[in-house]
Amino acid sequence: MPSKDTAGEERFRLVVEYSPIAMLLVNGAGMIEMVNSAAESLFGYTRTELFGQSVDILVPEALRVHHHGHRLEFAAAPRQRAINLRRELYAQHKNESQFPVEIGLNPIGTEDGIVVLTSIIDLSARRQSEQMGRHYASIIGTSEDAIISKTMDGIIASWNPAAERIFGYSESEAIGKPIAMLFPPDRLAEEADLMERLARGERIARYDTVRVRKDGSLVHVSVTLSPIADGFGNVVRASKLAHEITERKSIEKDLWERTAVLRAFADSAPTSIAMFDREMRYLAASRQWHDDLGLGDRNIVGLSHDELFPNFPERQKEVYRRCLAGATERSEEDYFVREDGTGMWLRWEVRPWSYPDGVLGGILIWTQDITVSKTINDEVRRIAFNDPLTNLPNRRLLMDRLKHAMVSSERTGRKGAVLLVDLDHFKQVNDTLGHDAGDSLLQQVATRLSSSVRACDTVARLGGDEFVVVLESLHGKSQTARAEALQIGQTILGKLSQPFNLASRDHRCTASIGAALFGEQKQSEDEMLKRADLALYLAKAEGRNTVHFAEA
Question: What is the pTM of this model?
Answer without folding.
Answer: 0.38
